[in-house]
Design a protein that fits this description.
Elements lengths: L19 H13 L8 H12 L5 H9 L2 H11 L2 H7 L7 H8 L1 H17 L7 H20 L5 H10 L2 H9 L1 H12 L4 H8 L4 H11 L4 H5 L14 H21 L2 H19 L3 H22 L8 H7 L6 H7 L13 H14 L1
Helix pairs in contact: 1-13, 2-3, 2-7, 3-6, 4-6, 8-9, 8-15, 8-17, 9-15, 10-11, 10-13, 11-12, 11-18, 15-16, 17-20, 18-19
């Protein structure tokens, strides 16, 4: 009998395992068809009122846009889309101020009105809005750090600080179940990157960079999306200085506003060890940076009605409708704006931290 008749069928080929970048690209394709990022209504009310004034300038309107992550992303995405980019600029518009001047007051006001209407009817935003305020705090930290480091790219620092957390906001808004699982793993001891890879198989930074490319946003914010713990400075160029300012500021926001006071001590010390010499900063500078940034963001926090305690990871677990840890319930009981958040319970510990800075 023909021996070929007994030949075993070929083994099935193993399916190719998607790479991290392929998974990011697939997620970006899913999110592109989703609604725009939400906005903070208080920012939109202020912008619309300013737009109706005959004395409003492009710079004044740009200030309102720059205070809101959702509207910042929208304005930059639209002005850098094919509809505008081909006839207005050869390369991506790099700043909010330039984007507003190109789009005009009426167009920006229309974006704000549409976004405000959507925000007033949207659901499931309780865990996203605190993240947007976190982005605002990081932007203000970045500006203050740039000033102290005598780094002249102030508008770039603010924009990169604002967009630094884009990936996490996208996951929290569009993938709430996955985000809730990530938060739960972090509260159980996993670091952020490990939790993200277990759930998403990529990091928040990977998604932020991917979406920034998809939206044709300015290049610099994407270059600054990286974990400060693994940051490596390649040169003394302007972009590397911007990367340092952005990632230091992001780490500062995490340590002061999102972590427990006991953990803040060690994280702040690590930040100074990694970035202090390069930026010309010492631990004694941190109190002033945090205080000035909190003052700059105070009006938005007060108008939003969101307590600063909602920025804590433990409180975000509650907002994501997970079973909260007992410590999260205690953290959720305190409220106030950034300037007032240094009051009872965890605030007392943070005041002791700042007094320690003052003695250094």
């Amino acid at each position: 009998m023909n021996a070929l008749a007994y030949r075993q069928p070929p083994a099935p080929l193993l399916a190719a395992v998607p790479t991290c970048q392929q998974r990011v690209d697939a997620c970006v394709r899913r999110l592109v068809a989703r609604p725009d990022l939400p906005v903070l209504p208080c920012n939109m009310h202020g912008l619309l009122a300013a737009a109706e004034s005959e004395t409003t300038s492009f710079a004044g309107l740009a200030r309102f846009v720059s205070l809101d992550l959702g509207l910042t992303a929208k304005v930059l995405r639209v002005v850098n889309s094919g509809q505008y980019a081909s006839r207005m600029a050869a390369s991506p518009v790099p700043s909010v101020s330039r984007a507003v001047s190109m789009l005009g007051i009426d167009a920006v006001a229309e974006f704000a009105a549409t976004a405000l209407s959507a925000a007033q009817t949207a659901t499931g935003l309780s865990g996203v809005k605190p993240l947007m305020l976190t982005s605002l705090i990081t932007a203000h930290h970045a500006r203050q750090v740039a000033l102290r480091a005598r780094f002249p790219w102030l508008e770039d620092a603010f924009l990169c600080g604002m967009l630094r957390n884009l990936g996490e906001v996208l996951v929290a808004y569009h993938l709430p179940e996955e985000y809730a699982t990530i938060l739960r793993e972090m509260c159980q001891g996993s670091d952020e990157r490990t939790a993200c890879f277990r759930v998403l198989e990529f990091s928040y930074e990977d998604l932020g960079k991917g979406m920034a490319r998809q939206w044709n946003l300015p290049e610099r914010p994407g270059q600054c999306m990286e974990r400060w713990e693994t940051f490596q400075c390649r040169s003394a160029s302007g972009i590397d200085r911007l990367r340092m300012v952005t990632n230091f500021s992001h780490g500062l926001t995490e340590a002061v506003y999102r972590r427990d006071p006991a953990e803040s001590h060690s994280r702040l010390s690590l930040l100074i060890d990694r970035f202090g010499d390069a930026l010309g900063l010492a631990e004694c500078d941190l109190k002033a940076i945090v205080k000035l940034a909190a003052g700059d963001a105070k009006d938005v926090f007060e108008a939003s009605g969101i307590p600063v305690s909602d920025l804590r990871l433990g409180r975000q677990v509650e907002l994501a409708r997970l079973e909260p840890e007992p410590s999260a319930r205690a953290a959720g009981a305190s409220a106030g704006n950034p300037g007032e958040s240094l009051e009872p319970r965890e605030g007392q510990a943070r005041n002791r931290l700042f007094r320690r800075f003052a003695r250094l």
